[in-house]
Batch of 4 targets.
Target 1
Amino acid sequence: MQNRIPACWIAALLVCVLVYLLGPILTPFLIAAILAYIANPLVNRIDAFQFKQFSPSRTLATFIVIILMLAVLMLILVIVVPLMQQEILMLSKKLPTYLGAIKSNVDPWLQTHFDMALNVDFSQLQQMLTEHWQTAGNVAKHIALSISSQGMTLIGWLANMILIPVVLFYLLADWNIIIDKIRHLVPRNLIGKTSEIAAEIDSVLAEFLRGQLTVMLLMSVFYSTGLWMIGLEFALPIGVLSGLLGFVPYIGVGIGFGLAILSGLLQFGTLHDLMPVLIVFGVGQLVESVALTPWLIGDRIGLHPLVVIFALMAGGQLFGFAGVLLALPVSAAIAVGFRHAKTQYLQSHFYTGSSH
C-alpha cells in the first residue's frame, strides 16, 4: 500500500489557502452567497408558479426576489435612518445637560470617598456641543470628508455594495445549475454518502439561517417596544441594534445591553432607575432562549459556547464582517462532517482493534 496523501486532500488544502489569501475581496461574494442560499427557496416557488398559460422564468423569478429584497432594505432604511438621526441629534443636544448632572452627582461622591474631583470643564464642553450639534445630522458633510480623506476606501465600499446584488442575481439565476455541476464532480463511489451529508448540512443551515433572521426581527421589535414602554429616550435605535446583533451570540446582546445601561444612566441618573432596563433585557433573553430560539431554530448546531466564541473570533480575523456572519453556519456544517467522521471512526478496525 502506498502511503500517499490523497489528491482530494491536497486540493482541499489548496482551496483553503486560496480562500485565505483572497479573503479581503471575498466579502461581497460571501454575503451574496448567504443571501442566495436564504432566498433560493422563494425563487424556486416563484419559478414553479403557473397561472393559466403564464409561468415565470427562473430569470424573472430571480429579478422579482431581488427587487423585493431591495424594497425591504430601502423600507428599513427609510424608517430607521431618519429616526436614528433624530435620536442622535437629540443626544447631542442633551449630552451637556447629562454631563452636568453627572458632575454634580459624582463629584461629591469622589470627594467623600477618594478625595478627588473630575477635572473636566463641562461648561466649555456644553458650549462647544451647543454651537456645533447641527453638524451631527449633516450627512453630506460627512460624506465629503470621507471622500477627501479616505476616497479609495469609500470607493471600494461602494463597489462592494454594487457588486453584492450583481453576484446575487447570477447565483440565484444559476443556483440549481451550479449545484448540479458540483454534484456531477463528486466521485460516483462517494455520491451516496456525500448527498447524505450535504442534505443534513442543508437542513441544519436552512433552519439556522432562516430561523435566526426571524429571531432577530422579533427581538428587535421586543427590545424597541420594551425600552419605549419604560420611557428610554433612545429605545428605537438601541432596540433595533440589540435585536439585529443577535446573530453574534453573547457579544451582540452585550453591546445592546451596554448601550441601554449607558443611555439609562445619562437619562435617569441613578442605578435604581435602571431596574426596568435590566428587566427588559432579562425578559428578552428569557423569551429568546426558552421560546423563540428552540421554536424557530432548535438545538441544531449543538456547539459548545467556547467553540462559538472561537468560531466568531476566527471568522472575524480571517474574513472580517462576512467571516462573523459565516462563522456559525460554517461551524455547523463542519460539525456535521465531524459527526459522520466520528461514526466512521468508531466503526473502524483501528478503533475496535479488530483485524478483520
Target 2
Amino acid sequence: MDPQTTLDPTIDASTAPARLAYENIVVAVSGPVARLTLNRPATANSLTIRLMQELVQAIESLHEAREVRVILLEAAKDSKAFCAGIALSDAAPDRAFQMVETFHGIFRAMLEISKPVVTVVNGAAVGAGCELALFGDLVIASEKAVFAQPEVRAGLFPPIAAIILPHLIGPKRALQMILTGERITAQQALGLGLVNRVVPEAELEKTVQAFIAQIAEQSAPVLAMAKKVIFQSMGLPLEEAMKKSADIYLNQLMGLEDSQEGLRAILERRKPVWKNK
C-alpha cells in the first residue's frame, strides 16, 4: 500500500487538513476522528527525522479542522511493534541536534493541539517509541504491548521520559524505568497509571472505537478547554491552579454556545446538539 493522505469524501474541505503526500505515515479523517498511522512496519516504525517531521506536519494541519474532535495515533496493522525508537540512521552524534529538535517538535505539537490525542499500542513501544506512546492524552494497549526506556544501555537517557515519567508515575518508579531500562508489560503499565485500558488484541479495535466515540460525541471547544486547564495547571501551586481553572471556566467556557446548550439539554431532558462554538 502506498502511504498517502486519505480523506473521507463526506468531510467538508474547509474542516479537513490539507492534502499532503506523506511517505511514512497515513492520515485518515472520518467525521470527528483523525487517524495518524505510523506506516514503516518493515522497520518496526522506527522514527526517522523525516517521519517525525511528517507527524508534526500532520498534527499541526488538524488545528483548523473544526469538526475533528479526537486524534488517534497508532501503528499500521501489519506492524510487529508500535515503535522501536529512533532510527539508527538518525541517531548518530552529527544528527543529534536535528533529531532532538524534531523529536521535541512532536511533543510540542501534541501539547498545543486542542484536540485530545489517543495512542493505541499493540506491540512494543521502546525508547522514543515509548515516549511517543505515553505522551498521548489517553493510552489504550493490547495485552501484548510492552514499554521500555532502554537508552541507558546505550549510554544515553530519554529526554522526554525523564520529564514526563516523574509526573505520571512518581520519581522512584520513573528512576527505576530509566536507570534499569527494564521492560514492563501492559498490565504493569496499567497498574502504574501509564495506560488507561488494556484489552486482548482481538478486542482492541472494538475497544478503541467505543472509547473514541465517547469523546467524539462531546463539544469540540469544551474538550479543548478541559485539556487546556489540565495541562496549564499541572505543576502550579494549588491556589494558582484553582484561579487559572476558574478564569477559564468563567471567562471562556461560560461564553460558549455549547455550554448554554448543554445546560438547556439537561433541563429539557434531551441530548444536546452541539454547534462547536
Target 3
Amino acid sequence: MAKKAPPPLMHEFKLPEIGEGVVEGEIVQWLKQPGERVVANEPLVEVMTDKATVEIPSPATGTVQSLKADEGDICPVGDLIALIEEGDAPATTAAPAAAADSPGAAASDHEIPATPAARALARERGIVLSSIAPNAGGRITKREVLAHEATAATPATPAPPPVAAAPAAARTPASPVVEATPVIASPPRGAARPSARPASPAPVRVGDLSDRHDETIPFRGLRRVIADGLVRSYSTAVHYTYVEQINVSRLVALRKQAKAAAAEEGVSLTYLPFIIKASIHALRKYPIVNAMLDEDAKQIVMKKRYHIGVATATDSGLMVPVLRDADQLSLLDIAREVRRLGEGARTGQLARDELSGSTFSITSLGTIGGVLATPILNHPEVGIMGVHAIRKTPIVNERDEIVIGHMMNLSMSFDHRVVDGFEGASFLQEVKRYLENPNLLLLASI
C-alpha cells in the first residue's frame, strides 16, 4: 500500500515589527499573488508606516497560497497577512510573460535598488528592472523607468515606408483607404497642388469620446498618510498666517561670492541653508515657536534641540525629511545634508527616523516660488515657514533713490493656541533681520 504524501507545510506570514514604536502598517501593494512562486528574502509586500514605505521580504521559499489582507488594509504588527506553501513545487499559476522571457529575472530584480513606485510601474509595463540604468545614486526611480520605456519605444516605431502607387487596373474602387495617404502628407514645397479634390475619405477623428474613461487612483499609501496628517493638523491647530517682504539684495550678493568657494568643496550652495540658519537664530530668541502642544498632558513642550523639517516633493507625494541638530552644522554642512536628505526622500532610501521628529518645518517651492501661501502645520509643530521666489523689484534705498533690488516673501503659519500674534510676527522679523543683513550670520560664528 502506497504511503500517503505528507500534507504541505504552510507558513504563516505575519506582519513583522518594522521599527521602534511602529504598531501597525498599511498594505500598499502585494508584490506576489496567490499561486505565484516566491523565494526566501524576496520582497513580498510593500508596507507604509509614518510616511516611510518598506518592502517586507518573504520568510520562506514556496508558493503564495492566499493573501489574508487586501491592499489598503491597515494591519497591526503580528497580524496574519499571508499563507505560503513551503517547498520547491512549481507554482500553480503561470508566471508573467516578462518573467518567462528572461529566466532568473525575478530572482535578480528583487536585489536591484529601486523605489516601490518604480517596481510597480516596471511590472505594469512588463519591463525587467535589470535592463534599466540606475540614477547617479545607484537607484531606480519612476523617472528611470519612464526614460527607459521612451528610449526602448523609439526604434520600435519606425516611420512607415512610402506607399508605392498601384497600377490603375489593380486599384479597387471599394478600398478608399488607400487614397488617405496623399490627403495626410503635404506636397513638397513649390510643387503644384492638384486642382481636382479626390473623393472625400472618412473623416479623421482626433479622439473617440466613447474611449475616454475617468482614471481612478487608489487613495492609500503615502497619499493617505499625507491626507490624514493634514486633516489632523487643520482640524486641531488654530492656523493663522503672517507674511513679510524681505529685501535679500545683500544675501544674493553674499551667496554669489560664496557659491564658487562652496563648489570647490563639492557643495551646491542654495539660499535654503541661509534661511535655515536665520530661522534657528529666531527660534533661539523666540523658543515658543520651537515647541509642541501635548494636549493629553495639557502641557506646552519647549524643544531644546533644533530639528528642522525640509518639505520635499517626491514621485509618491510630499515628504518632510529632518535635518537633525541643525544648529550644530555650518552652512556647507547644512547644504550637504539638505541635498542628501532630498535625494534620499526622492529615491526612497531614508530611514524612518530621518522622516520624523522635526521641531520646526520649512517648505519651499524653489523657482516656482509664488507670492504667498498658507502652509499647513506639520503636526504636532506650532510653526512652519513658506519660502517664495526671489524677484528683481524696484525698491527705495536709504537715500530715497529708486533702485533694482531682490525681494522675497516669507509666509508663516502658526498655531494660535500656542503662539500669539505678537510672538509670531516678532519671530519672522528676527528672521528678516538676519536675511537682510547676512553678515550677522558670520558674526554669530557660523
Target 4
Amino acid sequence: MGSSPSLTVPRRRPGSLASASGLSFAILGSRGYPSTYGGYETLVRYLAPYMLEAGHSVTVYCRDLPEHGERVWWEDGVRCVATRGIETTQLSTLSFGASASAHAAFNRHDAVLILNIANGYWMPMLRAARVPFAVNTDGLEWKRAKWSRLGKAVFRVGASFSARLAPELVCDSRALGDIWQEQFGRRSTFIPYGGEVLEDLGSERIRDLGLSKRGYLLSVARLVPENNVELTLDAIERLGTSAPMAVVVGSANFDNPIVERLEALQDEGRVLWLGHVSDQDLLHELWHNAAVYVHGHSVGGTNPALLQALGAGAPTLALDTVFNREVLATSDHLYAHDADALAGRITEVFGSRDTQRSLIEHGRSVVSKRYSWDDVCRDYTDLLVQLAHARVA
C-alpha cells in the first residue's frame, strides 16, 4: 500500500542483567530483520536493537536476500545472515530452520532465541554444539485449520521435541503456559508480546481511502478459519442496511472461499477489502480512527495485532477466548462466538461515543501497564544472559 512501512524503533534503556556486555546472541525462526511481516518479526524489530544497546552482539537469521545479494550484512548494527531454504507453504519453516540452526550451532553463539516450535526438529544440533537456547512457543500451531493433517502432525511433533529438548520455554500468555504444562509436562517462562500507546495519529490516509473518523468497522486478520473473519461478515449481514461500512485487512496464501465472499460484499459497497497491508503507519491510522475493531483470533496466546489495536486507540471487541480474556481482563471488550451476539455488540459500540471512549481508555491502559516493549525486551535479554552464564559456569 502506498508508502514504505515505518521501522523506527525507540531507543531502550537496558535492564538489570541486560547491562552485562560482550555476549553473542542469535535469533532464528523469523523472516528476518527488519521486517513487518507478523508477530515474530515485530518482536525481533524491537528486541534486536535493545540487546545491541545493552552491549551485546546480535545475529538475526533471515530468509530473504537483500538487493545487494550478499548473504551476510549489517542493518543498524544487527548482523543479518540469510540461510538457504525452500520457499513453499509446507517446507519454508522447516528448511530455513534447518539451515539457520546448523549455522547457529557452528558459530557457537552464547545463547540463541528460537522462534517457532517447528524448529524443535533441529534442536539436537544446538545441544550437540553446547549452545544454550530458549524457545518462544507462540500459539497452538498444530490447531490451525490452514494446515493439512500432515502439517498439523509436523507442528505437534515439533512441539513435543521443543518440550523435551529446550533448556527454556517462553510462553506469551499465562493461559498458553498452562496448556504446555498440561499437555507436555513442561513449565515455561511468561514473557508476553509488547505494544505501544500511540497518540495523534491523524486521519489523512483513511480519508484517501474514502473513510471518515469513527465511520467504519475494522477487521485485521489473515483469512484463516481460526481468525473468524467469516463470523464478522455474518454479523454484518445480520445488521442489513444498518451495518457500518466494514474495512477488512488480510489475505490468504491458499485457496479460501472467504475471498469470493469478500469480493461480492465489496462489489455491493458494504466492504472495503484492502488485502495484506505492510504499511504499519496506515494500519495504525486505520485502528486509531475505527468506530469498532473486531478481533476474532482464537488460536494463540497474546496476539500482537490485539495489542497494536489497543495501543493505537481502537474501540476493540474481541472474541471471548481464554487468551483474549487474559489480555483485556474485563468482559466489556468481549463477544461470544455467535453472529447475533456480535451484531448486537457492534451496534452498541458503533452507536455510542461514550462506549467507544471507555473501550479506548481501558485498552490503552492495558498496554501501558502490562505490555510495554521495555519490559518484554528486558525479560528476553535477561533470560538469554542467564542461559549464557549458566553454560559458562
